Structure formats: structure tokens, C-alpha cells
Amino acid sequence: MKIIILGAGRVGQSVADSLVSERNDITVIDTDAARLRDLESRFDLRGVVGNGIEPSVLAEAGAQDTDLLIACAAQDETNLVCCKIAQLVFNIPKRVARVRSTGFAMDERLTGPEGFAVDRIICPEESLTRYIGKLIEYPEAMQVREFAGGRACLVSVRARVGAPMVGHTIGALRESAPDMAMRMVAIYRRFPDEPDRFVACDGRTRIEPGDEVFVLAAHEHIANVLGALHRPESQLSQPVRRIMIAGGGRVGLRLARQLGQSAGGRFHIKIIEDHADRCVELASALPSDVLVLQGDTTDEDLLIDEGIEEVDLFLALTDDDEDNIMSSLLAKRLGARRVLALINRRSYADLMHGTQIDIALSPAQAMLGELLAYVRQGDVQAVHSLRRGVAEALEIVVRGDRKTSRVVGRKVSELQLPRDVHMGLIVRGLPESPDMPPDDLREPEVIIPRSATVIESNDHVVFFLPHKRLVRDVEKLFRVSATFF
Asked: Is 227 helix (H, G, I), strand (E, B) or coil?
């Protein structure tokens, strides 16, 4: 696929990194020549210096035969205008824009063909807020990713000594809970002086303390799965109530507002911001029970005075990676039960993974799945980038019939899946479109596929792929023949 990316900032670089690895033809437009030279030296792509809202610059970038435009420059206005020019002048078929303002997404007249002609709006701050909200809902989890409209989830969790599942083989666990719709799809195990190593899961695989375990399960079973991989009496298994947010930027404000509006005053929230003017803005924008404090997020005395030892979750969400890392490490040392650091630099996130920082979260990784689902071929419904972009979870909708599809009407054992691809679960009975009602009164069913399970048309199949290079093989297998259309 030929793709133009407008903007070589943090989001643009992360998007380029992910898409280049999938053998796409990438061109990046930016006004900063030095930034483009750096990108060209690191990735197999072409840079064009200029303003992306100028037709001549888009033409130089090859807009005449481009399949997808991703406009992720710093300004909303630039991204929106670029999409409109891409439609009017170059007829680029797919156009995605990063837009921070919430007003555009609420009015289809503005983003539709007669407006700015944006097919999909991406807001990194909204993606982050939604993702962090899931981590608050499931405090034991390191990652929570949703599929099939939230009916199924992929979670990763660190196995703890004494937990019911730890020390047992996966086969024994299947026998102890045969009716639970869950499947362990991958384990990443720590070894001295080397990165975590992927361990394929089968019935003989034993879960060891310290393993990062990836589990696909029906939504209603997620709490049980997480509890079984932690000790029930562990503090980490207790619900989150007291939250401290370091940084009152866009992400901090969105999250504090969302949590502050939760029913019944569920959360006790404190937000720390260094700048006095921003504190005034935050106090006027947030519910009255959210406490806004002016101060340095790395100030040990301030954290102690504000009861950091009683905090269930400390969230470092400033725009400075170093401050986020240092404040998270300090909060953990002072007694915060769990800490999360927002880290833009991928190398920093890699270093922090598995340290005293419980979760090192990259903003770009939180939203990449929404973009990847747009790039993929066929009926890809959801894509989630995992393990810092190396692995992936993929949801594909089965189309066609026995004549036009290589999977419909066939048993799982008959499918020619690549060796390391793990079919985790199937969601059956969903409407063909989110706007359509179900065909009957039955609730959609979450199925753990066995060798004899037969694939049906409109099944939503969720895979775990330890290597992104396997994506094309899976997509090819599920692609219907031309006669289907």
C-alpha cells in the first residue's frame, strides 16, 4: 500500500515505524528537513520537505496514486485542510486525520465528504484516556485490549508466587475450568542478561512466577483470570480508589474529568501541575471533588505530604519522559501501590519495561491499532500492537461461503495457519454491522476453538501473532475470492 504521512513528530514517527515494517511504500511530509533526514536514515521511506496543505508538495509526495493519507501534524487545522485537498485535488481514497478538538468528531457534517472529507478521526489523547481507564478497571493487568465490541478481551498479567494458576501446566488448568471461555496464547519469560523470551503455549507449558502471561477471554471472565494469576489477598487485587495524576496536560485533564464524573464518587483524585495558570484552568474545568495542586511532580516532600503511601495508582502523564520516569520511581519508592509512566521515546519504554515502574505506556502504541485496522486488507475489525510493536493481536471477520472462502465450513484442524499463529477465540452471533440488530434474540457467543470447531460465515476470529511478519499469511488465508463480491 502507498501511504503519505503528514507530520514527522512523535506520532508520525511511530506510525512510520510500524507501517514501514509491513512493507508499505511510505512518504513523510514535514517542514523540518533535519527531522526528515533522521527518519530516512532509520527507516526505508522517503521524505518531502514542505507544507502538506500545498497541492504542489502533495504532488511531489506522489499523491496522484496514493492509497492512504495519514495527517498527524501538530495543528488540527493543517490535518483537516490536508484531507480536504487530498479528496478534491488528488482523490486519495482513504484519509485519516489526528484531531485533538472533540467538536469535529461529534458533527458528521464537518468531517463528511461535503466537509473536510475525513474518513477516520484519530485522537491520541482520547485513545490514551480510554486505555488507562481499562487499566484502572483491571488493576492487576499490564495491558487490556478489547475485541468484538468489548465482548472479548486480551489481557497481559505478571504471574505471582502463590497464585492459583502459577506452577501448573496449561493443560491442567483447562481440565479444572473446562467451561470458562479463556485461552492462554503467549508467555514472555525473563532470563538473566537477555530480553524476555517468547514461550509458545500448549498443554504441557508450565506457568512460572514472573512470567508475563497473555490471555484471551470473554469479558465476564477477565476478573477471574486476573485473580487466578495473582494471590487473591494481594494488594494488587484490590480495586483502585485513590488516584494521583502527575501532569495537567491534555491527557491528565481528560482522564481526571472522566474519572471525576464516575457514578457515586468512586474515585478520590488528586492532580499535580507545575504551572499556576494551568492549575486555575484545571480547577475550573474539573468537578469540585477533584483536588488540583500546584507543585513539582518529582518533589519528594510534596508527595509525602499528599499521602503517596495511600495511593492505589500513580499516573505520570506530563510531556517530559524523564520527569515521568523519575516521579514514577519516586512514587513507587514512597509507597504507591502501582505506578504508570507515559513514555514517548520507545527506547526509554523498553528500558523501563519490567522495572519498578509497573506500566510503561507509549502514547503512539495506544492508538496505533486504530490506524493499522485501516491499513490492513480484508475484514480486519481490530488490531492491537503488543510487546512494543513486535507482536500483534488481530480480529478478522469471516466472509463468504464454502465456495468462495478457504475457511468457511472447515474445521480448525483443516486450516493452513502458520506454525506460531494462535487462534485464541471466536465470537459468533454478532450483527454484520454495529448499526444492525442481531438476527435473533440469542446473545453473541464466545467460543474457544478446538480442533473440531467449524468456522462459520460472520464469525469474529481473534488471533495472537508473536511476529508481525505473520500478518500477511493470516489475511491471505481469510480473504474471499472475487466471486464473493
From this structure: helix
